[in-house]
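[09:14] KT: can someone run the structure on this one? pasting the chain below
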Amino acid sequence: MGAARLLRTGLAVALGLGLVAVPAGAQDAKPLRVKVFPGAQNLALYAGLAQGFFANRGLKVELLFTASSTELRNGLAKGDFEIAHAAVDNSVAMVELAGQDAVIVLGGDSSLNELFVQPEIRSVADLKGRTVIVDAPNTAYALQVKKILLKHGLKEGQDYTVKPVGGTVLRAKAMQENKEYAASILNAPFSIQMARQGLKSMGRVIDLLGAYQATGAFVMRGWAKSNQDTLERYIAAYIESTRWTLTPANRAEGVALLAKWLKLPNDVAERTYDLLADPRFGLAPDAQLDQEGFRNVLALRAEIEGQWGGKPPPPDRYVDLGYYGRALKMLGR
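[09:31] RB: done, structure tokens below
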């Protein structure tokens, strides 16, 4: 499948298609709506649905897709769904920018992010005077790209322009179609496809900026307190799914799931799986929250957005890993 068709498929998903998985015998299970960005970072969710880990814990998971962080944050706050999986800085933004009581309950990955540029760009300094596209301009990966450019002496608004476009699939499509969009953060599998289309990677973000806690699960704190058992069963199933995903013997099945859900050619699915299996770059074992990476998330927000007077607060303000700890006990740990 060519990149254009992949992007059309991803775009259709990003614009609101929900995929409902109802395993046999799950009619009486607890319904649970989970919203994510389209992408490879969801492989543990795909595996959990396919292997029955959620159903085995009495959950009927409906997997929904979002086009942007703004849509995701607003939907979680309104109760349109119960669990969000996305860059956890979005949860921090919900608390700090909107006064919404969201809380992070689970880790996930380091983002698989790379800084991509148009082929004529030779260095980060060449982005001076150009347009950089992001999801939402005040959270997560937008802050990453702003920091990378700042390290090379480029300041937002003064040396370059930031334009919000939406999630990774939308940014990849935009860069492919409009050469005026000079740079963006992209992750797998779209990064793989865009490299084949001639866009250039300037490096992995974890190598450019250090540890980073990217995708994780966050919920509204009130919902978590009222649905503790449901949330802990979900987390336990997600950990089981992550373990299954990262087991080398399951590689072929994992590749097949990526190919099925993301409509990928097999070679791209294989490359994507191998990136996910990289413990530093891909999925975190047992979906653990990277404490150093999350401190860096807060430090980045403090520096780039000037939040908290430039001094990041303690991470515990935004995280409650009690649910995670009890879920591990369900699994015998």
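[09:33] KT: thanks! The longest strand covers residues 30-36.
[09:34] RB: yep, looked fine to me
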